[in-house]
């Protein structure tokens, strides 16, 4: 009797081991197939195959259906991006020539023998055309960033050359207004896209010089931290009320107190998009009557 029980136990053990081995191999096969599916999906070469009706294969089948639907969705998104890219290119191309022509004729008109009123009208026309060109360029840049048409390419490097170029662009305008523009020496480095980060810094400098009165100061500095590097643009302008600080980064937002100052309200919005697109962020601290400080935080690596 004992021998029969032992024999039965041995048989059961053998079957159990065989079942475990089979299940393990089957599960390994399923996981291997799923891994191949993911590799094919990432490579863009995935194609659905035939599967049997077992539970594990049903998982494979559902996963395959998910990948197919995801691929279709990705294709539609790419098609929409391509349409937006084409539309932006058309807008940029179609508006560039007429705006340039209007500006040219406005400049030629201002050189003619005009009455004082005519000169004022020509100057106003030229100023409005410049404003329109800046608006179109800002909208095109913003739309390209939002649509993913233009990609940011951050790379590690020193910040000083980019900051020096940005400060040099606004030095004449600051001197014309009697504003002291200073750049603190720095050896800080970060991971950033030089072209687009310069665009963001220039937008901050443009606002700082624009809103700072004669005799004021605008300073630029870069401060390294362990994980981030902070670029500060500080001015001695009128400051921003606390209730408006969260709104200044919204597209087209203009403070009621700044309605007489030129601008379209898109520079800070674009600066925020650029900072966030590089894994950073932007902040503002301000004291009404004592100026503002805008800070761009960029990752060090």
If you had to describe this structure to a student in words, what would you say it looks like?
There is one protein chain. By secondary structure, this protein is an alpha+beta fold. The chain has helices at residues 2-43, 55-110, 116-147, 160-177, 194-211, 267-277; strands spanning 155-158, 180-183, 189-192, 217-224, 228-235, 281-287, 291-299. The strands form 2 sheets. The protein has a 5-stranded mixed β-sheet. The chain has a two-stranded antiparallel sheet with strand order 1-3. Strand 4 and strand 5 form a beta hairpin. Helix 4 runs parallel beside helix 5 (194-211). The radius of gyration is 31 Å and the shape is elongated. It starts with a helix and ends with a strand.
The SSE order reads: HHHEHEEHEEHEE
Class per helix and strand makeup: alpha+beta
- The general outline is elongated
Residue runs with pLDDT of under 50 for 5 or more positions? none
- How far do the termini sit from each other? 74 Å
Number of helices: 6
Strand fraction equals 5-15%
- pLDDT averaged residue by residue: 78
Number of strands: 7
Characterize the main sheet: 5 strands, mixed
Strand order of the largest sheet: 2-4-5-7-6
Helical percent range?
A: 55-70%
Q: What does the radius of gyration come to? A: 31 Å
Helices and strands in order:
Elements: H1 2-43, H2 55-110, H3 116-147, E1 155-158, H4 160-177, E2 180-183, E3 189-192, H5 194-211, E4 217-224, E5 228-235, H6 267-277, E6 281-287, E7 291-299
Parallel strand pairs: 2-4
Antiparallel strand pairs: 1-3, 4-5, 5-7, 6-7
Helix pairs in contact: 1-2, 2-3, 3-6, 4-5, 5-6
């Amino acid at each position: 009797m004992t021998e029969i029980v032992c024999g039965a136990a041995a048989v059961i053990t053998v079957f159990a081991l065989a079942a475990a081995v089979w299940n393990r191999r089957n599960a390994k096969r399923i996981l291997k197939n799923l891994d191949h599916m993911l590799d094919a999906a990432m490579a863009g070469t995935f194609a659905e195959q035939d599967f049997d009706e077992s539970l594990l294969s049903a998982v494979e089948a559902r996963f395959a259906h998910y990948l197919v639907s995801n691929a279709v969705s990705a294709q539609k998104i790419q098609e929409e991006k391509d349409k937006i890219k084409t539309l932006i290119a058309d807008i940029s191309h179609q508006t560039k020539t007429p705006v340039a022509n209007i500006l040219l004729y406005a400049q030629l008109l201002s050189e003619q023998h005009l009455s004082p009123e005519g000169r004022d009208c020509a100057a106003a026309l030229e100023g409005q055309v410049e404003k329109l060109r800046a608006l179109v360029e800002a909208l095109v840049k913003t739309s390209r960033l939002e649509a993913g048409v233009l990609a940011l390419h951050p790379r590690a490097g020193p910040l000083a050359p980019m900051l020096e170029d940005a400060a040099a662009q606004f030095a004449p305008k600051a001197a014309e207004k009697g504003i002291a523009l200073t750049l603190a020496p720095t050896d800080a480095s970060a991971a950033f896209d030089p072209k687009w980060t310069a665009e963001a810094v220039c937008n901050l400098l443009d606002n700082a010089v624009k809103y700072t009165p004669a005799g004021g100061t605008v300073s630029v500095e870069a401060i390294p931290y362990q994980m981030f590097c902070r670029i500060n643009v500080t001015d001695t302008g009128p400051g921003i009320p606390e209730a408006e600080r969260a709104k200044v980064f919204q597209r087209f937002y203009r403070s009621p107190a700044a309605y007489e100052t030129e601008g379209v309200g898109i520079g800070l919005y674009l600066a925020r998009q650029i900072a966030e697109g590089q894994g950073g962020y932007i902040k503002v601290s301000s004291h009404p009557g004592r100026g503002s400080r805008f800070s761009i935080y960029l990752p060090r690596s």
